[in-house]
Design brief:
heterotrimer; A mainly beta (141); B alpha/beta (264); C alpha+beta (98); B: 264 residues; alpha/beta; Rossmann fold; 8 strands; 41% helix; globular; C: 98 residues; alpha+beta; 2 domains; 4 strands; 21% strand
């Protein structure tokens, strides 16, 4: 199994409108997920804490982590390519959206110092600085 | 047809995973086709020691439960063409794998690879039974400590009961200076007690910590003493005769003084 | 500590170096491990020994020690049983009469 390294960060706004999933179920995980723990959920997952290496979150919808993502996150597991993964510190061991799998590039890179979002754009997983939905729709970066 | 070797110790923290990574990488660097199998389900570590943790999609439980094919779960090493890792599961139940599964799995792997190296979990429970189920040879790791030697003795007994005859010993983390001072058991002391053949001696070496930090086995580091020991061990596994590396501490002033007085 | 002890220790020749202590402790532990003798078994053996020996002599039950030991290839049962007093032979005679 070959897992391609992530593309370099793209710090640009997202042009197309992500389809909102306001009606989908969402669960709130109010703790840090540690190695060996996993959350599987048919819907969105919001974590108030970190996701440590060795932990995983698998969701059919979006994944939002109010902390550091260092483990594995798989959003849109049933094939939803619109799903996104957002984290205060996006440093995943591996990140998957729908059928796309990416990992951090080899070598040492400084970690992010701002919240970021990973999404699929033109068939590739890209990472961009997090922007609230309102700002994105007006095109302000 | 390849050879299935289990690396075990009984006691935790004596260097099974480090040894597995280094022997496997050492054999691959000699041009052999090697697969490393992590059987420590729930506490997998071989992936991080090898620096392959971010490539894992499927694991050993996915294979044994038929969730994916064996080939899909094998992770190719970044450095060597012929080196692969079959990772343990981290989030699944450890009873998911049975000794019967392991026999089938190792049978399939040894048809493809020259060496199938199995990293055994600590303890003598289910994980140990799984790890040795498909093995044909065993390597026992012990550090020169009372607890590690005692557990190694127990493991040797269990291996023999499981028809894994003539396990080989690797003495890990030896500190020649302490041995010389009489404050650490030496190689002879350990062989004397355990009464099995010696495969190699690995000196205590800070470079192991550094190489584990980086996810690059020390066996690739030409300046590492432990790496040199692992290179020798890999060669011995392939049948080469390699003398034990010189662990002698250079004579200090005190030693010369003792010699002068005829105490040594 | 005599001067000789001190010199021996200083020059790493005596049996009290921590290595030798470790080896000796291991040797004893392994004799027990390998023989697979449980502490309960040793305890009940001790009780039986006391019962039998008490018929013939008075012993210090609290100081009684029963251990396994090994020399070369064989394992031995070593019992240290302090005797307080011998019982009189006529005990045996009385028993026969009774």
């Amino acid at each position: 199994m070959k897992v391609n390294p992530m593309k370099p960060k793209v710090q640009l706004g997202h042009g197309g409108g992500a389809s909102p999933q306001v009606d989908e179920d969402t669960i709130l995980v109010q703790r840090t997920l540690r190695s060996g723990q996993s959350v599987h959920y048919a819907g969105n997952v919001v974590v108030l804490g970190d996701v440590n290496p060795g932990a995983e979150i698998i969701a059919s919808g979006n994944i939002i982590i109010m902390g550091a993502l260092r483990g594995v996150a798989h959003a849109g597991v049933e094939g939803n390519e619109e799903a996104v993964v957002t984290a205060f510190r996006l440093q995943p061991t591996q990140l998957r959206i729908a059928n796309h799998i990416t990992r951090a590039p080899d070598g040492n890179y400084p970690g992010p110092d701002q919240p970021e979002t990973a999404r699929i754009k033109n068939g590739e997983v890209i990472i961009e600085a997090y922007q609230p939905a309102g700002e994105r729709s007006t095109g302000i970066c | 047809m390849g050879e299935v070797i289990v690396i075990t110790s009984g006691k935790g923290g004596v260097g099974k995973t480090t040894t597995t990574a280094n022997i496997g990488t050492g054999l691959a660097s000699l041009g052999y086709k090697v697969v490393l199998v992590d059987t420590d389900i729930g506490l997998r570590n071989l992936d991080v020691v090898m620096g392959l943790e971010n490539r894992i999609v499927y694991d050993i439980v996915d294979v044994t439960t038929g969730n994916c094919r064996l080939k899909q779960a094998l992770i190719k090493d970044k450095r060597f063409e012929g080196l692969y890792l079959l990772p343990a599961a981290q989030t699944k139940d450890k009873s998911a794998v049975t000794p019967e599964d392991m026999k089938n799995l190792t049978g399939e792997l040894k048809a493809e690879f020259d060496f199938v190296i199995i990293d055994c979990p600590a303890g003598i429970e289910q994980g140990f039974k799984n790890a040795i189920a498909g093995a044909e040879k065993a390597i026992v790791i012990a550090t020169p400590e009372v607890s590690a030697v005692r557990d190694a003795d127990r493991i040797i007994g269990l291996l023999e009961a499981a028809e894994l005859r003539e396990p080989k010993l690797i003495v890990n983390r030896i500190r020649p200076l302490m041995v010389k001072k009489g404050d650490m058991m030496g190689i002879e002391d350990m062989i004397d007690i355990l009464a099995i053949d010696l495969l190699g001696v690995v000196p205590d070496d800070e470079s192991i910590v550094v190489s584990t930090n980086r996810g690059e086995p020390a066996v690739l580091d030409n300046n590492s003493r432990a790496g040199e020991a692992y290179r020798n061990i890999a060669k011995r596994i392939t049948g080469q005769q390699v003398p034990l590396m010189n662990l002698e501490v250079p004579d200090g002033l005190l030693h010369k003084f003792k010699k002068l007085l005829g105490f040594k | 500590m005599s001067l000789l002890d001190f010199l021996n220790r200083f020059f790493g020749k005596d049996n009290t170096t921590s290595k030798n202590v470790a080896k000796e402790r291991l040797r004893l532990v392994l004799v027990h491990d390998r023989a697979n003798v449980s502490p309960q078994l040793l305890e009940s053996l001790k009780e039986d020994l006391i019962k039998v020996i008490s018929n013939y002599m008075e012993i210090d039950e609290n100081a009684l020690e029963v251990n396994l030991d090994s020399s070369d290839d064989s394992v031995a049962l070593v019992a240290n049983i302090p005797v307080v007093r011998m019982k009189r032979i006529n005990g045996e005679v009385e028993e026969k009469i009774g």
